[in-house]
Amino acid sequence: MSEVIVIGHRNPDTDSACAAWSYARYKNTVDPHTRYQAAVCGQLGKQAKFVFSNAGVEPPPYLKDVIPRVGDIAKDGGIHLDANDPLMLAFRDLDTPTLSVVPVFDDNKAFAGIVGVHEMLGYFVEGTVKSRPFYTFRADNIEKVIPGYFLKRGRDEEFRAPIMAGAMAIEQSALRLDSLAPGKPIMIVGNRPDLIALAVKRQVPAIIVTGYGVGDVPSVDFSEFSGAVYISQCDTAETIRMLRLSLPVKQIMDTRPLCLPHDELFDAAKKTLLNSEYQGLPVLKGDQFVGIVTRASFIEKPRRKLILIDHNELSQAVAGAEDAEICEIIDHHRMGAEKTNTPIYIYCKPIGSSCSIVYSHFRMAGVQPDRDTALLMLSGLLSDTMLLRSPTTTPEDRLYAPELARLAGVDLQEYGTLMLSRTASLKQTDPMQMVNGDFKEYAEGGFRVGVSQVEVGTLADMDDVKASILEALERTCKERNLTWTLLLVTDITHEHSVLLCSSWPAAEKEFAYSRLEDHIFDLPGILSR
User: Fold this and answer.
1) SS3 per-residue string spanning 227-271
2) Which of 80, 222, 269, 453 shows a CA-CA span of 20 to 30 A to 361?
3) Residues with Cβ within 8 Å of residue 217, at least 6 apart in sequence
């Protein structure tokens, strides 16, 4: 199931966060074949935190950016190996054209390592070393891989031993067994009762017998034998070949492979893989396995799917949005959207809040929102229209507000007053946080201007903080490389605002507002930037 992220502008206000959450809820209702996930790309303010807490729902998670990361392309196709699985299963999985490595998990289902072509080749050339190699054998795997049955199960389910074929004369076989001491081999032997008896006497860990018909058993006394006796239905050569494929994957797996963190940038992860000896790498989130990436995974860079809500300009969007696929735009501001490669759904309307637009979609679809969704949409509507007192309020907002209040089971005026009281205090808010909180950038005529707004319960303490706010405006203007920065401080109770701005004398002369002092203006009755 594909995922689409519904996200508002940077430094989200109450309307932006509530609209994203509510529109994701709406889209999941009308389009069950896609997963819609609300998110915010900035820290929520005091009022927004109150709204979500009061509604009893988790606010949208914070999303730093939508820049492609390796976790976006990691695939977990469900092909996993247990550390005790036989190598034959690894061969079967690696025969799949799209697989270069297979993840391996331990008994606790924790990621334990990988096995791939590199490990397989290393295993099959191991015979070139001078000493005879020891292997780990499991009785269950022998039974899974070699056609046949156990005549007697041994004392040990798992053991380490070299492989020896019983094909020589009895005297030479005895000498060879002695030469392997103290190690004792697993013996593969045909219809040779003398060699089988020798293996029993030397108490080898297991004997695999070949060359006997169905129902035939060796005429050897196994009563004192502590090892396993397996009757193979294959010839000796095939039995030895299959035996080597019965080894558990843990015998050859890479327990310390190079791993990629799920949040590593796409380009960095691609470079890491291409510069390594591996054909594929596991991707982990902490200690949790996410999936595998191969060289083919990096042929095309992934694009996250976004629905922009309460904004339409990339300058206000989450970082990385320029490389994402914009699927929809839901907004009530001026249009400044970038061009798209394909037609998309755009619903923009000059209305008081984005939550009003979201609610109109519920109404158009004939879907009644639940109590939580109605309360969040009401909160965003009342916040952006300042309890329907803002000049941006429209008749449609006034129609929707009481409908949402009824669905949410709250008194419109009482709840709105309570919510609006959860505003910032000038003295208790960091000036930089105030300036960069609800901040929007605009580009016109070669100038770049940033305008932010903060709602407060009173302007009485303005004199105590105005100097630090003006300093924060100048600093923000420089850091963001803007022409001008402005902050509208709004007393929502008395419907009165004060505008502070960085220094630009030529522009300040154009203001029609009363100047209180340098870079500070009085805006009675103004509630919206």
Assistant:
1) CEEEEECCCHHHHHHHHHCCCEHHHCCECCCCCEECCCEHHHHHH
2) 453
3) 151, 231
Q: Which of 266, 320, 318 is nearest to 67 (CA)?
A: 320
Q: Are 492 and 527 in contact (CB under 8 A)?
A: yes
Amino acid at 221: D
Spatial distance between the Cα atoms of 175 and 173, rounded to a whole number of angstroms? 5
Residue of 225, 241, 83, 211 whose CA lies nearest to 153 = 225
CB atoms within 10 A of CB 427: 11
Minimum mean pLDDT among 74-83, 92-101, 143-152, 360-369: which range?
A: 92-101
Give per-residue pLDDT as tens, 62-102: 999 999 999 999 988 778 899 999 999 888 887 776 677 89
DSSP SS3 for 407: helix
d(CA 93, CA 120): 12
- Summarize the chain as % helix, strand, coil (round to 5): 35, 25, 40
Amino acid, res. 26: Y
Please state, as a whole number, how many other Cβ atoms lie within 10 Å of the Cβ of residue 146. 26
Between 223 and 427, where is the model more confident? 223
> Over the Cα atoms of the chain, what is R_g?
36
pLDDT confidence bin for 214, thresholds 50/70/90:
confident
Q: Which pTM value belongs to this model? A: 0.68
CA distances from 45 to 52, 59, 88, 441 (A): 11, 12, 58, 19
pLDDT, one tens digit per residue, over 285-316 is: 999 999 999 988 999 999 999 999 999 988 88
Distance (Å, rounded) from C-alpha 254 to C-alpha 376? 51
| b (16+ CB within 10 A) / e for 2-38 | eebbbbbbbbbbbbbbbbbbbbbbbbbeeeeeeebbb
Residue 24: per-residue pLDDT: 98
Residue 98 makes CB contacts below 8 A (sequence gap 6+) with 77, 294, 296
φ/ψ region of 409 (left if φ > 0, alpha if ψ in -120 to 50, else beta) reads left
List strand residue ranges (DSSP E) for 286-338, in order. Answer: 288-294, 305-309, 325-331
* Alpha carbon distance 232, 240 (integer Å): 10
Higher-confidence residue of 220 and 130: namely 220
The token pair that represents 328 in the structure block: 């929809």
Find the length of the chain.
529
Once rounded to an integer, what is the mean pLDDT over residues 90-115?
A: 85
Q: Give SS3 for 306.
A: strand
Q: What is the pLDDT of residue 60?
A: 97
